[in-house]
Design a protein that fits this description.
Low-confidence stretches: none
Strand content: under 5%
Radius of gyration: 14 Å
Distance between the termini: 27 Å
Strand order of the largest sheet: 1-2
Shape: globular
Bound molecules: heme C
Number of helices: 6
Structural class: mainly alpha
Order of helices and strands: HHHEEHHH
Mean pLDDT: 89
């Protein structure tokens, strides 16, 4: 029973991410919102330090996310705890952190 619930949750999460990468209107809106969070809302903006083609970002202080292709969990962890030169983003809400994480994973293809 527990296992079934876990599987259902994983399947649901996969659908959300797959939806982001495909083209439904709702998914496109989520991608646009993610891009805005990435470029503007996060302070300092992720784009200052990272390259991410989808966001038009060409920062070179941190690793290129296009090459790293981190999954959502890895992005989320980096934002919550900080890593090396990257600060923790304590000014973002939980929902914003999850949205950026899903956006980066979908934009780089890691979600597929
Ligand atoms: C001040 C520059 C800076 C900003 C702003 C910044 N990062 Fe980073 N980021 C880095 C650096 C440098 C690293 C590499 C750290 C290391 O491995 O020592 C990194 C690493 C990462 C990683 C890889 C983590 C891992 O597990 O290897 C991800 C994912 C990431 N950043 C996402 C983001 C996102 C999303 C944002 C915006 C919310 C952001 N970064 C903002 C500098 C930055």
């Amino acid at each position: 029973m527990k296992l079934i619930t876990k599987r259902a949750a994983a399947a649901a999460a996969w659908c959300v991410l797959a939806g982001l990468a495909s083209g439904s209107a709702q998914a496109q809106a989520a991608m646009e919102e993610g891009k805005k969070l990435f470029n503007q809302t996060a302070v300092p903006a992720c784009a200052v330090c990272h390259t991410l083609k989808h966001a038009g970002a060409a920062g070179e202080i941190g690793p290129s996310l296009d090459e790293l292709k981190p999954d959502a969990a890895r992005v989320e962890k980096a934002m919550r705890t900080g890593i090396g030169q990257m600060p923790a983003f304590t000014n973002l809400s939980d929902a914003q952190i999850r949205q950026i994480a899903a956006y980066v994973a979908a934009a780089t293809g890691a979600a597929k």
